[in-house]
């Protein structure tokens, strides 16, 4: 492989064109069986991927993975990354052990974990309360990344993922619409026809010596149909620290602007970098203003914990009083020198809670994770269910659905050697298909999305063409 595009098999950073290796599975223990709802007595066993049905007719999704995650402690990334400082990471290869058993398309679907916030926005009659709920939804969308240091699998060109959750009231479809550059498009709608949520994502990654930075590109759009409103925003930048040595940790930073294109209201959220003393780690502060730039409320909290809002006057008074009661701290020169020469960027000590300002209203609180989440790639309960292959599902899924990817399925089951070989086979198959199209001068055609213009921002976007849930999959490509 000597051409640039032959190495281009990454969407979110590290991936491997030659990732096969010997992984000992002798130390892998059987999966822990979790019962996250012990108070329910109608639980039944599941066999062969079949999802149990509760007495009320709603499916109960799995609460653990088939096998615990493989230890990454014996693997070093320095030999791979040391020549890549300051470069874009889309062509760097890394072993499969640094992945998590989900496709990036499934990771995108985690936006929907806190869909109740969209439902809340739909139900509010006050546009300010709707913006507050949308702002909370935008923050909650990145909350699942907390402590998630594994890399999702890069989607193959034409790969898809669908999810219908009748209990949560939505259905979702995504497609990998471009490989060079890598772009993932998604579309979701409420089963009650109350909202549409869509967008396209192209994350730009760079390696900076000790850290990897993911700059988000692409517009997120939420339409509240009952109110004839559309909101747009982009996600904050994500940075993973200590990719060479030390404990991995991540932070989100940057300014997110949410615009209500119907009323002119805007929400500005500042995801703060941790700073020198780590005081600002995970903190989010911002405000909502009307079209005349009058501040209507202040929002504060942590994207890893909760989000509150209060009126601007109360917030400013509280901050002034807080400033009077605190003395600025100074570091000694010895500490400064130590900070500059440390081999690892130690994660700052996390403040236990968000400081509550009296009179504030709670907008959102993060869901608790499964008891053995640390053995399941730090997945949330929602993420654990995403790759579940229920009995009879293969007959109705598109053949391009990433639940059917053999590398992800084998990794989830703990078969690391097989997963690594399958991943390499799929990438070679994708390269061969690309070369064949180039030889025959045939262009790739997306199946469920098309290039267009976002109707609210006027920027280029990938828009849903419709028809997926008619389930005519006769012309889907063979990518697995």
Which terms summarize this structure?
single chain, 480 residues, alpha+beta, 15-stranded antiparallel beta sheet, two-stranded parallel sheet, 19 strands, disordered N terminus
Taken as a percent bin, the fraction of beta residues is 15-25%
Please bin the fraction of helical residues: 10-25%
Distance from N terminus to C terminus (CA atoms, Å) equals: 21 Å
Q: What is the ordering of alpha helices and beta strands? A: HEHHHEEEEEEEEEEEEEEEHHEHHHEE
Poorly predicted tracts of residues: 1-50, 328-342
Number of strands: 19
Mean pLDDT: 81
Rg, Cα atoms, Å: 23 Å
The main pleated sheet reads as: 15 strands, antiparallel
Shape: globular
Structural class, by secondary structure, is alpha+beta
Tally of DSSP helical segments: 9
Could you explain the architecture of this structure?
The protein has 480 residues and is an alpha+beta fold. It has 9 helices and 19 strands. It has a 15-stranded antiparallel beta sheet that branches. Helix 3 (116-123) packs antiparallel against helix 4 (127-143) and helix 8 (406-412) packs antiparallel against helix 9. The protein starts with 77 loop residues before the first helix and ends in a 16-residue tail after the last strand. Residues 1-50 and 328-342 have low confidence and may be disordered.
């Amino acid at each position: 492989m000597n051409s640039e595009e032959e190495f281009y098999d990454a969407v979110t950073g590290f991936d491997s064109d030659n990732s096969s290796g010997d992984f000992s599975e002798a130390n892998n223990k059987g999966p822990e069986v979790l019962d996250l709802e012990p108070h329910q007595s109608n639980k039944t066993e599941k066999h062969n991927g079949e999802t149990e049905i509760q007495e009320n007719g709603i499916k109960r999704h799995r609460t653990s993975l088939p096998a615990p995650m493989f230890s990454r402690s014996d693997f070093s990334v320095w030999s791979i990354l040391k020549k890549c400082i300051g470069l874009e990471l889309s062509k760097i290869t890394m072993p499969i052990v640094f992945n998590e058993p989900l496709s990036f398309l499934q990771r995108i679907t985690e936006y929907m974990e806190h869909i109740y916030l969209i439902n809340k926005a739909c139900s509010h009659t006050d546009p300010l309360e709707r913006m507050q709920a949308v702002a909370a939804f935008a923050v909650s969308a990145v909350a699942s990344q907390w402590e998630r240091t594994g890399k999702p699998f890069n989607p193959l060109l034409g790969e898809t993922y669908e999810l219908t959750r009748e209990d949560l009231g939505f259905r979702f479809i995504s497609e990998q619409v471009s490989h060079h550059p890598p772009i993932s498009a998604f579309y979701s709608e409420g089963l009650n026809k109350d909202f549409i949520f869509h967008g396209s994502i192209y994350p730009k990654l760079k390696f900076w010596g000790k850290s990897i930075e993911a700059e988000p590109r692409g517009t997120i759009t939420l339409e509240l149909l009952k109110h004839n409103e559309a909101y747009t925003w982009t996600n904050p930048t994500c940075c993973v620290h200590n990719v060479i040595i030390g404990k991995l940790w991540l932070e989100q930073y940057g300014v997110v602007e949410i615009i209500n294109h119907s009323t002119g209201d805007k929400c500005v959220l500042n995801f703060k970098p941790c700073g020198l003393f780590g005081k600002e780690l995970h903190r989010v502060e911002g405000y909502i203003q009307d079209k005349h730039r009058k501040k209507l409320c202040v929002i504060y909290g942590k994207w890893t914990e909760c989000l509150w809002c209060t009126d601007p006057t109360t917030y400013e008074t509280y901050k002034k009083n807080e400033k009077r009661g605190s003395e600025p701290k100074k570091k000694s020169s010895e500490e400064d020198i130590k900070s500059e020469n440390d081999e690892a960027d130690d994660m700052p000590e996390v403040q236990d809670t968000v400081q509550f300002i009296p009179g504030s209203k709670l907008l959102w609180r993060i869901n608790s994770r499964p008891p053995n989440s640390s053995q399941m790639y730090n997945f949330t309960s929602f993420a654990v269910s995403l790759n579940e292959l229920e009995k009879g599902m293969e007959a109705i899924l598109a053949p391009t659905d990433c639940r059917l990817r053999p590398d992800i399925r084998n990794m989830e089951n703990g078969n690391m050697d097989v997963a690594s070989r399958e991943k390499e086979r799929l990438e070679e198959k994708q390269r061969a298909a690309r070369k064949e199209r180039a030889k025959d001068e045939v262009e790739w055609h997306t199946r469920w999305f098309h290039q267009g213009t976002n109707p609210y921002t006027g920027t280029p976007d990938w828009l849903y063409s419709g028809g997926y849930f008619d389930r005519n999959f006769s012309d889907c490509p063979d990518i697995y």
